[in-house]
């Protein structure tokens, strides 16, 4: 897992580390890493036109020192200083001594922009002067008429570093070069896609980061390790049998899609219980189907909700599943049925794992308020309140546990914003729970695989939920090979 830390924790670590080093060491390390990446992007530094956007703090200092390194290698470096009274003096001197220059407007030709407007000292959206300069800069073109490459220093300026919120205008970077550790804005919220590709430069900070990370990001190896490995001695109950209680005569598609998600997972068998049974068996002949949950036979986890509707039959289904001592995924309509009343009591009384999978509107109904600007905090709060793992869907899906650990999924894809893909996710998650994964591991794994499957499906054109379900098996196979 790749951890990301909040600003206060980064500052504390930097202070502890800086106390043992000659002044300016960290900035030199940061600038060296930044210049190295810019040089890689430019391929040929000599003769390249580099513009530095310089704000009032050390973020600008990093950019100025990196600019000095590039100027010494023959780049034409121009610093556009937003507030000359508050510029990083030593950095500016280093730049001019290396042959760079400072002015208040962007030059005509720009191959590469270094965004040193603001870093972890940011408050609110980009200020108006900075936004105007950014706008002008983005109108410029490179030596070959191309759009300039944007490299953000530490974070794209204008984002809220701790929450990943984007309160106003902000830089959209192609590459962000960050120092010491990732910050939440790189991995959650609307800020995450603005960071582009994130490169982490080691400045020796890691041993000094003593606080718990704000959020953890799984990578391929984590997911490959989490996935159950099949053994020759396996039978269906060691692989996990999952029960699906979704869909209805009105919404049979939800039942078919959640079953498809479950079948794509590492399950030994899928049982279905509900009024859409005939449709499900037609679409998936290997599924054992009954009308009622109580007749379903032995399962090791339940998925309930999507397409059930909210009538009495649906409420009975949710109640019946919650009354078992099995792990449960509560999705879609089940979440709406949880709002208020006896369901909440049933949830509180359970000791078996539960995973809630809301999108924003379902979250708002459940929590009584929108997820808001701090999606990690919101998911953590709902998880603590419901005693369930919460998987808050989004471009960067968040998984939060009742004890406060949070994960951000890095494989999100706009392709997944289409009807029925949530059903596939819930089914897959159920099959991972039935396979014995801890609920937060199952949720993180399901989100990751689902995102990869969405990307894979999108390579062949517009994506439908069946495409995502179909893409899951090869994605899982590839990952575990
Ligand atoms: N603290 C350290 O040890 C290190 C810090 N480094 C760099 O220093 C940065 C932090 O430096 P600072 O603490 O000086 O803070 P910043 O440089 O991030 O920002 C502070 C300045 O930005 C202005 N500002 C705040 N919000 C703004 C907004 N929304 N729009 C426009 N301007 C805004 C403020 O007036 C303030 O003067 C890091 O992000 C990193 O780039 C690196 O050199 C590595 C070491
Ligand atoms: K920046």
From TrEMBL:
Domain spans labelled YjeF C-terminal: 219-479
Transmembrane segments: none
Residue ranges annotated for the YjeF N-terminal domain, each copy included: 10-211
Cofactor: Mg(2+); K(+)
Residue positions binding K(+): 59, 115, 157
Keyword Lyase: yes
EC id: 4.2.1.136, 5.1.99.6
CDD domains, sorted: YXKO-related (cd01171)
Keywords: ATP-binding, Isomerase, Lyase, Metal-binding, Multifunctional enzyme, NAD, NADP, Nucleotide-binding, Potassium
Entry-linked InterPro entries: Carbohydrate_kinase_pred_CS (IPR017953), CARKD (IPR000631), Nnr (IPR030677), Ribokinase-like (IPR029056), YjeF_N_dom (IPR004443), YjeF_N_dom_sf (IPR036652)
Catalytically driven reaction(s): (6R)-NADPHX = (6S)-NADPHX; (6S)-NADHX + ADP = AMP + phosphate + NADH + H(+); (6S)-NADPHX + ADP = AMP + phosphate + NADPH + H(+); (6R)-NADHX = (6S)-NADHX
Function summary: Catalyzes the epimerization of the S- and R-forms of NAD(P)HX, a damaged form of NAD(P)H that is a result of enzymatic or heat-dependent hydration. This is a prerequisite for the S-specific NAD(P)H-hydrate dehydratase to allow the repair of both epimers of NAD(P)HX.
Protein's name in the database: Bifunctional NAD(P)H-hydrate repair enzyme
Species of origin: Asanoa iriomotensis
